[in-house]
């Protein structure tokens, strides 16, 4: 239960993606337009980006709208691969920076929009938090992101009520799934944005159908249906 965004393309500032758009993540933190679970996203925010081959992150358990320091620095943070999120914590989950997307294995940045019963996820000491999203991220990293589709289908079968929208980037690719939550894509020509909901009213935004895998790389955007086995 959050809103997230991924970008791959020519370097842009983090502010251009998160703060400047009329309905960007800043606006979505207090007035999301397409969110169906929860009314706002005040339980933290996070952004990660590739700096060369190094993964950088800034996460907080406070609402995005109250972080003046980030607002002053975000225009200076530039990257060609960004993953960011604002969080609405699932009931019973901790509200702490370590429970906030994006998570990382040192190569990939990963965000989870949704909820999943922790009983279907293996316990691991490698998770950054005990929350459902962190445990799910640890499992996806352990299985490998090339197996994202199969893992999401497997978890969806084990937990039919789960919502499993995943968004991940490693500097050369964005991978995403739609499973119970919304996702839209915007091709800017110089880059591609994947987002839980459009951050402006540009007519080029396209909605991704539910239960699909999305892959973005230098060759374009590809969609593949996700099917239960």
Automatic annotation (TrEMBL):
It comes from the Bacteria. InterPro entries: EgtC, EgtC-like, EgtC_Actinobacteria, Gamma-glu_amide_hydrolase, GATase_2_dom, Ntn_hydrolases_N. Its EC number is 3.5.1.118. GO terms for biological process: ergothioneine biosynthetic process. It catalyses: gamma-L-glutamyl-hercynylcysteine S-oxide + H2O = S-(hercyn-2-yl)-L-cysteine S-oxide + L-glutamate. The keyword Hydrolase applies. PROSITE patterns: GATASE_TYPE_2 (PS51278). Keywords: Glutamine amidotransferase, Hydrolase. It is an enzyme of class 3 (hydrolase). Transmembrane segments: none annotated. Coiled coil: none annotated. Pathway: Amino-acid biosynthesis; ergothioneine biosynthesis. GO terms for molecular function: hydrolase activity, acting on carbon-nitrogen (but not peptide) bonds, in linear amides. NCBIfam families: ergothioneine biosynthesis protein EgtC (TIGR03442). Catalyzes the hydrolysis of the gamma-glutamyl amide bond of hercynyl-gamma-L-glutamyl-L-cysteine sulfoxide to produce hercynylcysteine sulfoxide, a step in the biosynthesis pathway of ergothioneine. This is Gamma-glutamyl-hercynylcysteine sulfoxide hydrolase. It comes from Mycolicibacterium insubricum.
């Amino acid at each position: 239960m959050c809103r997230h965004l991924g970008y791959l393309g020519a370097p842009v500032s983090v502010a251009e993606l998160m703060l400047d758009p009329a309905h960007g993540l800043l606006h979505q933190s207090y007035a999301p337009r397409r969110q169906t679970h929860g009314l706002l996203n005040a339980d933290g925010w996070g952004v990660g980006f590739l700096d060369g081959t190094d993964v950088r992150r800034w996460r907080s358990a406070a609402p995005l709208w109250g972080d003046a320091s980030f607002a002053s620095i975000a225009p200076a943070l530039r990257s060609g691969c960004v993953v960011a999120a604002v969080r609405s914590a699932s009931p019973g989950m901790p509200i702490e920076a370590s429970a906030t997307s994006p998570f990382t294995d040192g190569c990939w940045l990963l965000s989870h929009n949704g909820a999943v019963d922790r009983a279907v996820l293996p316990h691991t000491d490698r998770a950054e938090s005990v929350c459902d999203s962190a445990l799910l991220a640890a499992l996806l990293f352990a299985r490998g992101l090339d197996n994202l589709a199969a893992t999401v289908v497997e978890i969806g079968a084990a937990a039919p009520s789960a919502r499993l929208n995943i968004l991940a980037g490693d500097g050369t690719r964005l991978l995403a799934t739609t499973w119970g939550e919304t996702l839209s894509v915007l091709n800017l020509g110089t880059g591609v944005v994947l987002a839980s909901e459009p951050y402006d009213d540009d007519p080029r935004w396209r909605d991704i159908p539910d239960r699909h895998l999305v892959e973005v790389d230098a060759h374009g955007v590809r969609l593949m249906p996700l099917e239960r086995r």
